Amino acid sequence: MTSIALSQGLIDHFKISEYEQATTPSGQKTVFIVKIEGVKYALKIIHIADERFEREVKICQQYNHITGIPSILKVEKYLNDTIILEEYIEGNDLSDILDQYKGDHKKVIDLIFKIGTILKPVWYDKYVHRDLKPQNIRIRANGDPVVLDFGIARALDEESITATGGQPLSWYYASPEQYAGQKNLISYKTDFFCLGIVAYFLYTNRLPFGNTKDLIAQTFTKTIIHIDSGNKYINEFCNGVFYTSPSDRPRKIETFLKLAQI
Amino acid sequence: MKIAHVLGHNSNWSIETHLQQNIGDYFLITAFTHGIDFDKKKSLKSILPKSMIDLQFYGKKSSGDIIAGKLSEFPFHPANCGDDEITNVYFENCLKRSIKFQADKGFRNVIIPHFYENEEVKDIIETIKKINDHVKKTRIEGIKYFMTLAFANHIIIDKIKVEEILFACTDMDIVFDGYFVTCETKPEFKRKLTTDIKVLRNLSKVFKTLKQQEFETIYAYANWDALVILAQTDIDYITIGTYENLRKFDIRRFTEDQSGGGSKGYYFSEKLLNMIRADDITIIRDTGNLHFIKNDRNIFSDIILQPGFLWNIHKPDVNKNYLLAIERLLKRIGSVGDLIYRKELVLNLIEDAIKRYESLERNYIYLDNESSNYHLNIWRTYLRNA
């Protein structure tokens, strides 16, 4: 990881006593874990504060009261950058502790239910996360999940922020409509499908539709995708959301949550 | 599943079969034929509690020019639209008033009209969303609201367009109780049914998806290829109709004057799953092959298959034979709860019909055009792969 240092001016301004760099700096943002007055925070330095960034801030601030979504404490302009001071979530990235879920259907389903419960008000308000994957889920010490990175979340009632046709996606965990670039079919049901992939992956530590874009694309040409994880509960959940057509997936959030209960 | 008679021209025949032979459970009154005073008609009064009405907005303003139609009698019907009124607000008001009209008339199943949109899918979706918001605010306890989905042919053959519509219809915000689905199948010349597998596939998808999402479904202006759809999913109401224009949705009926024309009519055979031209009956009978096509336990069939029967499409028994035969088929299929067994039943009926056609040919009866087997192999192929 390329390391960069915080400027003394910024350290003084935010009264930072300790810090460590959390991510490789990108053109858009760099994240640090900082300590201010003895409390840890995530400090994000946003180099290009575009519409996507504003949307992430808006969503997180709107749901500040939900423990499963990081609270934003401060958004401030500093020189040419925008600084976000965000709640630091003690715990692990789900992607780092996959082995704890492998073969444990109860733990997997329970986690999916908790993520669904966190996102329930978000979905009701017509936002879609669109990038649910283990790397975007942090697990607190008590096992509760926190959903991160609403950077590509979409408000269905607003104009899309991405260029026509193209959509940001982590293709391992993408839904058929994301794969096909059908932006008009993106909805809360897209997140349902992606959580199906996450569930399958956690239980088996394998991807349900293969490891190549071609294999996945081939699967998504089928009307009905039927998977077998080797566990009936995981199968019931996954096959309840793995419909190529979004219109065939659960219509109501409660129906989805019911699927994620044993 | 309920069978609903479409009440159009000579609707008394349909009502008679209900009252005398117990055919059908429900009725769909067509505004085109019965007009604003439908509830003052003596023949309709007794069946009004078991009825719904299709106000048939399909043709919008063009419907106002049709001489035979009575759509202009409804003051809120877009048939009355003036040139200066063609705005979305005007049409939305027409829809809202049509909902109120049905509720005021005491209908428990309100059919929310929709237009036949030949252009953009987004226009269809926009109307659905707006009317959904209206129903959300104004719904009356005890009334079921069915939104019309009138699939133009170029839409139903397009999987992506169908999915876009279904996507909107199955959103969590939707408050409709169900959908009133009709489809422009556009059969080829000298055919009564479509053989376009895209129509079968996508229309089946519509019904399967809506049912899976727990909506009630009405298949309106259905022809006997409803058997194929019913083989794969439950449908709450399927309409049956005497004349062809009540079994085949065609936008031209609502946009231009059409003459019914004269015809000797057709014999619907439960065994062949097809309509046989009246002229073909003579040779089938004369060669001793009538048993291959004859409907059993059907008094209307017995009458019209008698030697010397003067065939005419405007004779009640010719039409009643269809009503009895198709109701029996639909009810038999619909009564099988397990969809795997139900599909097998329909496939067996199709296989049997194909064998009967083959038997007729072995006996040198070669049926052509509408009477021929132009559809069964497509049905069989489709269902085996569905």
TrEMBL record, chain A:
<dbReference type="Pfam" id="PF00069">
    <property type="entry name" value="Pkinase"/>
</dbReference>
<dbReference type="GO" id="GO:0005524">
    <property type="term" value="F:ATP binding"/>
</dbReference>
<dbReference type="InterPro" id="IPR000719">
    <property type="entry name" value="Prot_kinase_dom"/>
</dbReference>
<protein>
    <submittedName>
        <fullName>Serine/threonine-protein kinase</fullName>
    </submittedName>
</protein>
<keyword id="KW-0808">Transferase</keyword>
<feature type="domain" description="Protein kinase">
    <location>
        <begin position="1"/>
        <end position="262"/>
    </location>
</feature>
<dbReference type="GO" id="GO:0004672">
    <property type="term" value="F:protein kinase activity"/>
</dbReference>
<keyword id="KW-0418">Kinase</keyword>
<dbReference type="InterPro" id="IPR011009">
    <property type="entry name" value="Kinase-like_dom_sf"/>
</dbReference>
From TrEMBL, chain B:
<keyword id="KW-0175">Coiled coil</keyword>
<feature type="coiled-coil region">
    <location>
        <begin position="343"/>
        <end position="370"/>
    </location>
</feature>
<protein>
    <submittedName>
        <fullName>Uncharacterized protein</fullName>
    </submittedName>
</protein>
